[in-house]
Design a protein that fits this description.
This protein has about 220 residues and is α/β, with parallel strands linked by helices. Helix content is about 30%, strand content about 20%. This is ATP/GTP-binding protein. InterPro entries: Gliding_Motility_GTPase, Gpn, P-loop_NTPase.
């Protein structure tokens, strides 16, 4: 198991705002690759070599060339400013490790669902769990050189609503992975702004009613 520490500068002592994002998806969709490509530190990986013993429990359809797999999680870090740091967690993809997902989701701001368009059904569980937890997410289609699908075809296959961003990416490329994370952050900001606006509208609508409820009798109604 590779748990090497970073060979770069340590995190500033002034950083006190930790933000968490999780990368989830099916087996072999590139979660470890994405965390590795975008992390500013040497990521912590819990990868183990795949053996024949696992063939009976892991579905290798479409990923026959895969030789290692994540058995717990991947971890990376991006410093945003002097006080804020982004922590990235890559979830394991095999069904036998899905029980870890609920704990990984704890405290998460949002998630990236990474998908392989050749195996879209493998992403259904990730989307279902995120919706169950009420965790905001976006979907990123990793480029494996498979058949092209339109955005509408992908949305229909994943039963994805129009308000969930859908982007294409190459998890091996740092700039592409950064674009995915930026898209997620912009989505989270938009959701937060919408909630604040809705709360403000509700408060303004409730204000006249509250004023009437607390007001004394008018001169006309006074005895």
């Amino acid at each position: 198991m590779d748990s090497a520490t970073s060979d770069r500068a340590t995190l500033s002592s002034t950083a006190d705002n930790g933000l968490k994002i999780v990368v989830v998806g099916g087996f072999g969709v590139g979660k470890t690759t994405m965390v590795r490509s975008v992390s500013e530190i040497r990521p912590l990986n819990t990868e183990e070599t795949m053996t024949r013993a696992g063939e009976a429990v892991d579905d290798l359809a479409g990923v026959h060339a895969k030789t290692s797999t994540t058995v717990a999680f991947d971890f990376g870090r991006i410093t945003l400013d002097e006080r804020s740091v982004l922590y990235l967690f890559g979830a394991p993809g095999q069904e036998r490790f899905w029980f870890l997902w609920d704990r990984l989701f704890a405290g998460t701001l949002g998630a990236v669902v990474l998908v392989d368009t050749r195996r879209l059904a493998d992403s259904w569980y990730a989307i279902d769990r995120l919706e169950h937890h009420g965790t905001p997410f976006i979907v990123a289609c990793n480029d494996f050189g498979g058949p092209l699908h339109s955005e509408q075809q992908i949305r229909e296959a994943l039963d994805l609503s129009e308000d969930v961003p859908l982007v294409e990416c190459d998890a091996r490329d740092r700039s592409s992975s950064k674009y995915v994370l930026i898209t997620l952050v912009e989505h989270l900001a938009a959701l937060s702004a919408a909630r604040l606006q809705a709360a403000g509208t509700t408060a303004r609508a409730a204000a006249p009613e509250a004023a009437l409820a607390t007001a004394g009798p008018t001169p006309e109604s006074a005895p």
